[in-house]
Fold these 3 entries.
Entry 1:
Amino acid sequence: MPHVTVETLVAAAAEDVFAVSQDYDARLEWDPFLRDLRFVNGSGPGIGRRVWVKARSGIEMTAEYVVYRSPELVGVKMIDGPAIFRTFGATWRFTPEGASRSRITFQYSFTLKRWTLPPISHRIAEWIFRRDMRKRIEALRRYAEQRLTIGGQS
């Protein structure tokens, strides 16, 4: 199963960055990937909760939280999504690197439907994911550093 990993260091506490990442009102402010999202069974993140997301590109997906360990790790798996994917899962990890610094790691794993042309289609998907993941993680870093550090909210 192909997977893509990106990470960055953030000048803010891991628990604060985790909280911002799971605040869905804030998420619509900082996340360049998302156009819209909403919970479909309950409100707020947690194991078993499902969230529908719509990307700015128009792609839609429903994902379910399979891991929720505040303030260090969240994991989701695709329940329903783009026809090209057989499976899709993502984890976001938040690791303290001192009192006011953290490492954020995004990892996406996926398999494509048989009618695609692996390994070429996997390489293309990996490239697209890596590009989009870098934009997202950098947007989260900027948002967290502006909102959670000196000169921001903290």
Entry 2:
Amino acid sequence: MEHKVDPQPSIRPRGGSLASLLRPAIASAVLFMLVCGLAYPLLTTGVAALVFPEKAAGSLIERDGEVIGSSLIGQQFTEPQYFHPRPSATLSNDGEEEQPYNAAFSLGSNLGPTNAALIDSVEKRADAYRQENGLPADSLVPVDAVTASASGLDPHITEANADLQAARVAEERGVSEDEVRRLVETHTEGQQLGFLGERSVNVLGLNLALDDLD
């Protein structure tokens, strides 16, 4: 008996038509977009506004009705009558120039501990720190005084850093060192959750309090 073979057998897709496959895929994409892209952000924003209204609004600081900063983002202070923040590695928005504490370009230096450029910059910062605060050439310098944070926006310095700057600030402002140290203690924040990290000083808040002394 002779068997005939179809030279071009028809191929039928298994599992239904293309339309039946696309329908659940599109529906799932729309569902997850609504849940993850709309409902969840609205829910978390609403809860944050109710439970932590100040932080949800950016922890903004106002003076005379004008926003001058945030307690969560550092600012660059270089004048001797102010406490200085830790270094910042942030750049300008085009990434071409150094622009300390640029909140629109948050980043660290990403240099490893053995990187020659990092070692050189730390040595220069340490020498400058000792000189501006009247410290001996061989004195130890707090690590946060010579290195940037991972974000480049850290608003805090350590208690050790603030302690070494207190004498300079008091002399420049013509006030007692004890008065400056009382302000430092007032603006010192405890460890996170009571045990994470170390006590730290909010630089912007402290410097604003110093200006209020005038």
Entry 3:
Amino acid sequence: MKPEKLAHVAGEMLRIAKDSPDARKAGNNFAASVLTVTELLENVLLPVKAINYGLGRAKEYMATKFGPELAEKTSGIPDEFLIEPKASVVGPALQSMAFTLDEKPLKDMYLSLIAAAMDGRDPDAAHPAFAEIIRQLSTPEAIALPAFLLADGVAVVEVRIQAPDGTEYFVPLQHLAETVDAAGRPFENERFPAWVDNWVRLGLVEVSYSKSLAEKDAYAWVESQVAYDNLLKNRPSDAEEGWTQTFVKGSLQTTAWGTAFAAATGLASLPDVQH
């Protein structure tokens, strides 16, 4: 089905839901009325290849949990500002959410996006592209992302192996950031540099190694990071003599697009999370 047809059908479904007897019984909270689209979701919003795998589970979720969970997300919106969300936002969000029922961080982001689209005070805050961005995140990324999007700049470094005269170098590791576990101990997150590349690709953050943070001790953590220490320990025995390991200070900054994404997907309302 073409995207424009999908958007039209999604809009029709939401209009049907709003006018149905079930919706009227639900009272003023339009979120509960979305429960009535379950029958239509089976054949329209689920991709064909996912029908045999996920249709039953998606149908059960839509019938039993979707309404209450969305109602919770919209609980902070006054009734008079609840509006029908744009199909261009809610269609792709519902479609992709069918694949994330077991991945709560991603599912919650879709629910928050739909809720943002239902807030008549600023309905355009829910950009149609945000559903696609969520679809291109992994669950571990979604868990880690708020700590970086909500920070006022994050210290990152580029590790270099440099020639004795300083004229040549190569980069074995980029986008190294301070990562600690719940007990405050450094640990190695091997996927983090790739995550940063993905966030840059999606326009959520910018990384610069010509700008650094001015705060005292902002980079004091570097040499205690496992990844940095491992590079020193594991240098091959035949490495060129006199070449040294060093690092260049950089910064990771959230873009305006990233800030808008965090607000529309509920990340901005999460409690502070450590890197």
